[in-house]
Amino acid sequence: QSVLTQPPSVSGAPGQRVTISCTGSSSNFGAGYDVHWYQQLPGTAPKLLIFDNINRPSGVPDRFSGSKSGTSASLAIAGLQADDEADYYCQSYDSSLSLWVFGGGTKLTVL
Amino acid sequence: QVHLQESGPGLVKPSGTLSLTCDVSGGSVTSSNWWSWVRQSPGKGLEWIGNIYYSGSTKYNPSLKGRVTISVDRSKNQFSLNLRSVTAADTAVYYCAKLGGLYLDQWGQGTLVTVSS
Lengths: 111, 117
Prior knowledge:
The complex is a heterodimer.
Chain A (H helix, E strand, L loop, with lengths): L8 E4 L5 E6 L12 E5 L6 E4 L13 E6 L2 E6 L8 E9 L4 E4 L3 E5 L1
Parallel strand pairs in A: 1-9
Antiparallel strand pairs in A: 2-6, 3-4, 3-7, 5-6, 7-8, 7-9
Chain B lengths: L2 E5 L3 E2 L5 E8 L8 E7 L5 E8 L4 E3 L7 E6 L4 E6 L8 E9 L2 E5 L3 E5 L2
Parallel strand pairs in B: 2-11
Antiparallel strand pairs in B: 1-3, 3-8, 4-5, 4-9, 5-6, 7-8, 9-10, 9-11
């Protein structure tokens, strides 16, 4: 069971907007630690998608956006495209456990 | 930006030691960065293994119960992972990565290590 909780799957049609939630606790998000998001396309390594809650690395389209409030965070993907189909992971630091923690991952299916 | 490449045996016997190396190119392992190992069991999520600073300071996942050692070799511009007393549960794709802040901003392509006799 992951320290950060994500829905196992989400889906949406091309062009639609989907959100992926990530629920933490008082020892990670609630302690002020940021959320970061990764995209893992099939058969590839994870790639940083959002860092420090809301920031996109160079080259990541602005269709991807992040937010965090209290002990919850979310990733939004607007204008869904077929090649957005991937697994998405949230990540933070947990001060109680003293370790870097990941969510269990969410599989995005583009219908 | 740096490029990371994992290497090492793809098959390790139970109770043996898993040893992997991560070659760093396009940058120096002695730059002011933390370097990490992360693994992903087949069909499962990501698990942080540990970090090392260029100075040799380390942080490890307590769940690995003292079986893990991460080291850095400045002369070869690489860092390494040793995981002792492996079992089938340690079968996974192992990734090396660079920490930027508290997030992993560069990843290697990953290498599959199978624990089997």
